[in-house]
Every structure is written in structure tokens, then in C-alpha cells.
Amino acid sequence: RVKSLESVIIVEGYMDVLALVQYGIANVVATLGTTISEKQLQQLFRRVSEIVICFDADSAGEKAAWRALKTILPWLQDERQVKFAFLPNGEDPDSFVRQSGATAFLQKLSESKTLSDYLLEQLKQRADLRNIEGRVKLLNQAIPLLALLPEASHYFRLILSEISRESGVTKEELLGQIRQYRHTTKIKLPENMQQFVVKEEFNPVLKTVQLLLQSPDLAHSVENTAPFAILEEEGIHLLIELIEFIKNHPQKVNTAMICQHWQGKATEQFVLQLAIRETLLSPEALAREFNGFIHQLLADAMNQILKNKRRLEFLERKGIEHLPAAEKQELLALTHASKR
Fold first, then answer.
1. Residue of 209, 277, 270, 273 lying closest to 243 (CA atoms)
2. Burial of 89 from C-beta contacts in 10 A (0-12 / 13-18 / 19+)
3. Phi and psi dihedrals of 256, rounded to 5?
4. Euclidean distance between CA atoms 53 and 117, whole angstroms
5. What mean pLDDT is reported for the chain?
6. Cα 300 from chain centroid (whole Å)
7. Which of 155, 170, 179, 301 could form a disulfide with 227 if both were Cys (CB 3.0 to 4.6 A apart)?
8. Which domains, ranges and CATH numbers included, belong to the chain?
9. Span 112-122, pLDDT tens digits
């Protein structure tokens, strides 16, 4: 959970998250892939002002870091800071923290490069600035990136100045080329970024699962999950399994333990995606919302049981010999369900 933190570390996989949490580094989330999505980025910037990217130290991780940089640029404001942490070659956060410990990992984080330093370093490495061809290459690579930055930010003006100095092109000329590129490619920067809110539609079951993943102890407030089995909403069997897992586990269950237990299951990615989502609720409000959803689901289940009972009675009165094939199958299914 990141809502009360000043910064958050972004890693690639949930095993990285589990390892770091086990070593006492809790302000960490995973992209669950090799890049960060705009949706993940928007959610994080609503809660923290500093993000540290720490991907695997291999070619895939390096490419993912560069893609992340390009995703971040449109959302970069003066009060926001992004850094890139680099581990020794071949390491990932999971392997590094287990081998070297939390102190060594935090030391690597303290050596992180700022986004602007990383951006300029990469651009200069890809072009030989000692000749005109190299400086042209620098401009060709820098202009599409600068076009992604909000012009009102200090980041834009300072990086533009640095590229102007390195290339020998005036700031006015460079700004004109950036605006022309933005116009030609129809780049649209986000508007009113501070007020941006990600709107997500959840059915009650998925919302209940999300809340439970954030506060697993809430499962103990659910006395009986059996009535829920009659519901057909997406995720209902996952909710039942999750509640029973938490209630029957001999230890106090946390989110990391749930993610680890779900490794290899068909719903693994589904659970991980819900686990990294965040609400802005206090623990008390979260519990109230969870209990509200549980009561609503229980009421829905009782209504469905009553409907099924009435339908079963209706079909039985008609007599099975007078029913068409479809209703015969329905009668058999309702009879079987009523005996469970």
C-alpha cells in the first residue's frame, strides 16, 4: 500500500515484491510485465511524488526502463520526481536483496539516476557529438522525446537547453521543431493532470476481492461462504476460495502470502492485478465498504435461492413428462442445486 508514502519503487515481477517486503522494504509495487502502463503511472502519481524504477539488469530490463521513461514523460510535472536504479549486471531485485541484503539494495537506490540525467546520458551515448552527423542524430532522437514533455514544466525548458547546447541549434529553433513534430504526429498531452482520476468499473464481487486483498483479516468477519456459490457474477468462486484460504490458514495472512499461494493457479494474474490496485479508504472505511458488499452479496444470494425454489416448484407442478427438453434439464439442475 502506497497511499501514505512519499515514494514508491517499481519493479517488474511479484517475486521481486515478495522478496523486498520480506526484507522490510514495503514501498514497492510490480508492473507484472516488462513495462509500466499509463494507468499504473496515473494511479501512483495520485499518491506519491517520487517514483524509483528498478527493473532487472538485463537487456529486457534496460529496454523496459527506456519504454517506461517515454511513458512517464507526458506526466512529468515540477513537483514530481522519477529516478532509475540500476543493479549489477544479471541481477534482479529478488536475487540481489536475497544475496546482498536490504542495506545494499537501499544503497543502490540512493545511487539512482534522475530521469533527466538518464535521458541525456542515453541520448549522448547513442550519438557521436564530435561531428555534425552525430549532432543530427541527437536531434532526431531528442525531438520526439521532448515533444512528450509538458512545455510548462521546468523539466522541458532545462532539457531543451541542454540539447540545444549539445547540438548547436538555438533553443528557439529547437522549440519550433518540437512544436512542428507534435503537430505533425498529433501528439496530445494529458490535460489537468493533477485532477486526473482513473475511473474503473468493478462489479461488487471484484470490488470485494480487491478490498480483501488489501486487508485480508476482513475474511474472518464472513461466517459462511456457502450461499455465495449460487451467484454467477465474475470472480465469485475466487472470492469464496480467497475467504476460505485466509480463514483456514494457521498464520496471519498478508497480501504477499496470498500472491505466493496463488502462484501457478489459473487466476494468478487476476489476483495480482487486483492486489496492486489501491483505494484511498481508511482501514475503518475499508472495513465498512467490505461488509457492505458482503451483505449485498448475501442478500443477492438469498434472493436467487428464493427464485430458484419458486421456479423449481413451478416446474414440478407442470410435471416432468409435460416439459420440453430445455425445461427438463433446468428442472434436473434446480433439483440438484436444492440438495447441496
1. 209
2. exposed
3. -60, -40
4. 14
5. 84
6. 30
7. 301
8. 1-199 (3.40.1360.10), 204-338 (1.10.860)
9. 999 999 999 99
Is the confidence at residue 200, as pLDDT, over 60? no
Give the chain's length.
340
| Residue in this structure with the C-alpha cell 465498504, named with its chain if needed | 289
Lowest model confidence (mean pLDDT) among 27-36, 99-108, 199-208, 317-326: 199-208
**Residue scoring higher pLDDT (33 or 214):** 214
For residue 151, give the C-alpha cell: 512545455
Residue 147 pLDDT level (bands cut at 50, 70, 90) = very high
